[in-house]
Design brief:
Strands 1-2 form a two-stranded antiparallel sheet. The protein is globular, with a radius of gyration of 16 Å. The protein has helices at 3-21, 24-34, 39-48, 56-64, 78-91, 94-114, 122-125, 128-133, 138-142, 153-159, and strands spanning 147-148, 162-163. The chain has one domain (3-163). It is mainly α.
């Protein structure tokens, strides 16, 4: 899903959380999972792909054009979800459950909308172990595809990329 799609769905999910629970802090936890989970893209961009230009246009296009050479995405992993769910269950920490609800929504939307971009199993892609077995190699995990990305930033942010078939 596009970053703008994640932002919009996260705003809705957070608003519903405040309405239902009356808790702004719980809604913030949902927002962290729903949108700010993507902070791992920034970590990959800087640390693993050695890209230093943090201009939003450059960063967004780098990912939408499928140029990532290394795809670690530590926060986008079933293994981390299992660990966090076990921790939330063990501690009963409601805010961690809120984060997990937001993050689960994020991954579900990624699976539904981004599966067409991956040549292999989209479910397996969200396993950290699977990505590690493939050496976090962007080409091996995502293939080499030709993407169409809108030129204007906000169009790219909300529409995302499409395949040039």
């Amino acid at each position: 899903m596009s970053p703008g799609g994640h932002a919009a769905t996260t705003v809705v999910a957070s608003a519903v959380t405040v309405y239902v629970s009356g808790s702004l802090s719980l809604a913030t936890a949902v927002a962290l999972g729903g949108f700010l989970i993507d902070i791992d893209h920034v970590v990959d961009y800087l640390l693993f792909n050695r890209q230093w230009d943090l201009h939003p246009v450059k960063f967004l296009r780098y990912y939408l054009e499928g140029r990532a050479k290394r795809v670690v995405l530590a926060l986008h992993s079933w293994e981390l979800f299992a660990l966090l769910a076990a921790t939330a269950w063990w501690t009963g920490w409601l805010h961690l459950w809120g984060y997990l609800v937001g993050a689960a929504m994020h991954l579900f939307l990624d699976i539904v909308f981004n599966g067409k971009f991956l040549p292999k199993n989209i479910i397996a892609f969200y396993s950290f172990t699977y990505r590690a077995i493939h050496g976090f190699d962007g080409a091996a995990l995502m293939g080499r595809r030709d993407y169409i990305v809108p030129v204007k930033f906000w169009s790219a942010f909300f529409k995302g990329a499409s395949l040039n078939d």
